[in-house]
Amino acid sequence: MRIPLLSWLFLIHIFTISVSSQCLNEQKSLLLQLKNTLSFNPENSTILTNWTQTLDCCQWKGVTCDQNGRVTGLDLSSESISSGIDHSSALFSLSSLETLNLTYNSLNSSPIPSSIGDLANLRHLNLSNSGFSGQIPTGLSLLTRLVTLDLSTHNYLGNRSLKIEKPNLSALFGNHGGVVELYLDGVNISANGYEWVQAISSSMPNLRVLSLSNCYLSGPISDGIDNSSTLFSLRYLETLNLAYNRLNSSLIPSNIGDLTNLRYLNLSNSGFSGQIPIGLSLLTRLVTLDLSTLYFPRVPTLQIENPNLITLLGLGFGMGAGFVVGPLVFWKQGSRWCDEQIEKFVSVIGPTLCVIFGWCGGVKVETESTIEEHETGDSDEGEDGEEMEEEALPGRYCVFCSKLDIHRKKALHGLNCGCHGSPPISSPSTSSSSSSS
């Protein structure tokens, strides 16, 4: 019987696929050596426990191979690995690796081995929350093909956290021009002012994600003169997170509006103060803006035209709710801090989801009686008070102990507040009205 040529070609194609999918023996040997040197809990493991001699290693869970049977991807995330990884580990002999994920393990607070630089083909490296600590090694600078790098940790480790000191940022990242996502949250960088800004912006011009929360960074982030090596030269940025740093008394630079592709901006608890720049209104693609726990005494009229924007405002604005949904507007008058869309959200969604509030330490509070004074104009400020109200939001509320009055669009402070040295004193009329309700 004669077999048509097309059928032969099909059979050859299938045979080629089946042969090329077989992992090389030396690759399997390296993986088994790696497994044998790692300490992990078999009861919590879903990957390493299934690596056995009897199976093709390219079919193992957590392993990806190319058409030649070489290991190109290794995912050992959440494998409860409790031992460190030595610089002589078989891991660093997997020279074709392009993706390595060790996130969510407990690697015994060991340093990242300098041999990481032997994995020259790495494009995606995720060591977040893996338990590494100490100085990030020079070997990282050899990974010139990196596209994404995540060394972040969301657990406070104190002296056991990763740090960047010697070599510094410039030495580590000088050859990483292809990186588009950089996550260093929780890494102790401790760089001063313009040093860290220049190191990152000059080395990684194509960044789309830059996350540096809780890195002990200090300001300023712009010298106001040369914008060629500042964060604002990173025109592709979509995510910028500088939360929980020490940018004390620094103004948010007005040229933040140059980052027109930003969709997520988190400056919460970063130490910024002073005026909010009009440049924020140019960020028309923003979806999330977090300015919580910042203090801005004077707020300009500002609108960001994006109906999908979610804003975390915090107490610096004198607003009761910790977050707002709707088009972002910084209102001229404090009595109008809540528009119709926000009112609908609070009245319909709020009771179901429960509104999440921020920390209230060290802020002034306002009771219902003082709020009524603002409404009736009984305060002593007179015309000066009206002028102040045009640009500042009077009154700051302790959000843990406040309730939202949807009708008047106010945050009313609770009578039994325990967040301060002594509860704020309210008028008898307020007490009686509360008891009657």
Reconstruct the topology from this structure.
Blueprint: H1 5-20, H2 25-37, E1 63-65, E2 71-75, E3 99-101, E4 124-126, E5 134-135, E6 148-150, E7 162-163, H3 169-173, E8 181-183, H4 194-203, E9 209-211, E10 239-241, E11 264-266, E12 288-290, E13 302-304, E14 310-312, E15 324-325, E16 328-330, H5 340-353, H6 368-376, H7 382-391, E17 402-405, E18 410-413, H8 428-436
Parallel strand pairs: 2-3, 3-4, 4-6, 5-7, 6-8, 8-9, 9-10, 10-11, 11-12, 12-14
Antiparallel strand pairs: 1-2, 13-16, 14-15, 17-18
Walk me through this protein's architecture.
The chain is an alpha/beta fold. Helix content is 20%, strand content 13%. It is built from 8 helices and 18 strands. The strands form 4 sheets. The chain has a 12-stranded mixed sheet. A two-stranded parallel sheet has the order 5-7. A hairpin with a 5-residue loop joins strand 1 and strand 2. The radius of gyration is 28 Å and the shape is elongated. It is a single-pass type I membrane protein. Residues 24-66 form the Leucine-rich repeat-containing N-terminal plant-type domain. It holds the Pfam family LRRNT_2. Residues 1-21 form the signal peptide. Keywords: Glycoprotein, Leucine-rich repeat, Membrane, Repeat, Signal, Transmembrane, Transmembrane helix.
